[in-house]
Structures are given as C-alpha cells and as structure tokens.
Amino acid sequence: MARSVKTWLREQNQLIKDKSIEELSSEFCFRDPLRPIRNNPEIIFSPADGVIVDCTDIKSCDDTIYGKYGDITINDLSYGMIPEGEYSVVTIFLTFYDAHIVRMPVSGIVKKTELPPVYVENRPMLDFENFIMGGKYTEIRKEIISSFAYNQRTLYSIKNPFRKDSLYLILTADYDIDTILDFSSKMCSMFQNQRLASIRYGSMATCIVPKSWNTELKCKENTHVEAGLDTLFFYE
Known about the structure:
By secondary structure, the protein is mostly beta strands. The protein has helices at 5-16, 21-28, 74-78, 126-133; strands at residues 3-4, 43-45, 50-58, 64-67, 70-73, 87-93, 101-103, 108-115, 153-159, 167-173, 180-182, 187-190, 195-199, 202-210, 215-217, 223-225, 231-235.
C-alpha cells in the first residue's frame, strides 16, 4: 500500500539489513515479485514501484514538469509525440531498492515508440537518491534531478476502449541505451497490471493522463507506491 517515505524506508532497512552490496546490486534490484493481476475499471494503478517526486496538472504540453532533466516540458520529453492538451502528470522515481518491473496502469491497446537518446549534462541521480535513503525526503530539491548522458527513453501510448484519448507512459533509463526491456510486441492489447517492461538500469516513469478522463488524483509527492497495488487516480 502507498505509504510515507519514512515508513517505507523503515521496512526496507529490515528487509535488506543482512544483504551484501553484491546481493543488492545483482539480485534485489532486478527481482520480479509476484503481484496479483487486479482489474478495476474505476482505478488507474501505479505503473512502477518508487517515490512520487512530482504531481502536476498542465494546461499545455509546453507547460513545465519536473523530471530527470530538471525543468522540462512534455513536448521536449516526448519529442512532440504527445498530442496537445491538458494532462495530469505523475513522476515516479525508481530507487535502487525498488523492483524495476513496470506494469500496465489500465487495460488497453499499447503502442510503443522508441525516443532518440539525447546527450545531456551528466548529473547523476546519486545526490537525489541519497536524500531519500538518508531519510531527508522533506529536503528533496527538484533542481538536482537530472540524468546520465545518452540514456534511453521509451514512450508507450495506451488506448483504453472506453476513453476517447490515450494515456501515455514515458520510461527513462538511467545508465545507457538498450536497458528498457519489453514484455510485449510493438503494438498489442494488454490487461491492467500485466508486466509491460523492465528498466534494467532505470529510475523514472512518467504517467501522463488526459484531463478528458475526468480523474481525481489520489497520491501526493514524497509517497512511496508499488506497481499494480497502489492507486494513482480514481475516475470521478
């Protein structure tokens, strides 16, 4: 269930206290835990395990959100491949301690688009993760969020048969290209909470929900969520 970062950290410390760095880096970060396949048409589930670092409503794709690049627009993040409109955007940071399996937030037809990797200022996520792991989550500064150079980004559009517009999900890798692994073909139909992809060396999932879906946000910043278990939005 969704809980404060402080509570989640306490649980993680108990879980990993006897594990070595080798076990954490080779097994724990790459685990694929069993999750129930819950289907609820009134809910948009979290697509990823991690800490919510930003919840923003935008009136245009040129409005600023926060992510691995610091201040950035949806147009820049998606190379202009998301239609102009109003959206609710939730950014989830996948920490070293989180499972890196991404799941379907809703049922629908999925279309995958590879976005070209871009060379950016090489400001790693270590400072940001140290704030979270050190229990200083109230001191998180969004300006320190950035990315490694030449990272991979993948855009997924999800067309739900009961909604006019598509939901969008952008996965951003944190290490290099070819680190986002798909569990499906380039275009296919998938059920809510099915395994969509794995970010082997990744740390950001951006969920972009059209305002036309008439949803109500049920999460807040500095909250830890789990894919397929915790609710991001309810339909009004």
